[in-house]
Amino acid sequence: MTFRTKQLLDFWLGSLLLSLLFLPVRCLGLILRRDHSVARRRGCAVIKLVGAGSLFLAIPSLQAIRGQFPAGKFFVVGTRGITGFAEGFGWFDECWTIDDSGLLRFVSSTLRALFKIAWHCDHLIDLEVHSRFTTAFAALTAVRNRIGFVNEIVFWRRAFYTHMTYFNAQGPVYAFYDMLAGWFGLDRVAVASVYTAFRARVIAQPLPKTLALPPRYVIVAPGCSAFGKERQLRPDEWQSLLANAGLDGAAVVLLGDAADRQLCDAIVRELGQGYSLSGQLGIAQSARVLAGAEQFFGIDSLLLHLARALGVSTTSVWGPSDPATRLRPGVVEDRMYYAKMCCSPCIHVHETPPCCGARPCIPAALSGTPASPNTAATGVAVGWAVGPDDRTAHAVEVAYD
Fold this sequence. Notes:
Elements: H1 3-32, E1 44-47, H2 52-66, E2 74-78, H3 80-87, E3 94-97, H4 103-120, E4 123-126, H5 132-141, E5 145-150, E6 163-166, H6 173-179, E7 188-189, H7 191-203, E8 217-221, H8 235-243, E9 251-254, H9 261-271, E10 275-276, H10 283-291, E11 296-299, H11 302-309, E12 314-317, E13 334-337, H12 361-366, E14 380-386, E15 394-400
Parallel strand pairs: 1-2, 1-4, 2-3, 4-5, 5-6, 7-15, 8-9, 8-11, 9-10, 11-12, 12-13
Antiparallel strand pairs: 6-14, 14-15
Helix pairs in contact: 1-5, 2-6, 2-11, 8-9
């Protein structure tokens, strides 16, 4: 299925399911009067369908939550790109894949995932913010505690979740992910130690014996998920950016998955140099290559977040998304090209960008001077949440190590 088809299914099929589920969910909630305390620890499932970069931003909080459950009782549910990424680093005890390559596979794999969650879990954390499908999926699992995000746009989610964290698309998304730990009595998220353990695991990752990397190299990662392709730069834009980057003789190595191969090859032709490893390495091996780079050049994508966590200095180009909402402060030295146009950010606010792919924000960003983000690490994040016994929202505070 194409990404546009998936969006339409999420809207129409998800809306139909929610309309059918609304009364049963509300009535059963009043009749059963279930205990929604989080003291039970039978198992917890995390659902994320699109955007492995967002999952990585949530990992510090999720690893803190994982420590509250018995060994073997922490799971992730997602499409193949999400579960493949999660399997590479051992953050979950099991990964359950929803196969979206075709409608029949999608239905059958969804039913299997529903059964597994209902059998093994009493908690579900929905990391998607706007998805109707994951909201209906969470309700159909019938788990005791369903934890999700709400805001003024998706207010209808309040009818289907037992524990709700308020989400602001214009705010720092990592902070809202970190606040999920508060539902389990945790008021501190150990970002530094999680990233230290991540770096150690990556460095220990073996590379193929046939892979011969240059002695000095920089990484270019031009691709992103199917959501928000407006983020991507054209080959000529990459050539212009790298020509002024001061590479000092370092070779250019391009990373991406198989879907990025055509774009990476076009960039190599435009540059007249470079090595494309697109589609040749798994995500853990790609991270190992990243760890040895002198610099990283990319866009808002998973590989950018991995490079920052690995301590590689980064140069990134933004426009359809706002770096202030995506980058954890105090992680690494960054240089960002970003033009705050009146329509930016768009891809995390609108289902379809109003420019329909024209993305004037990209050349506007590249014509400016790169800036450095706020390098001071956040001390305390403050947000709001509503639990099953709350009449009004209560404040949530998360501190960092």
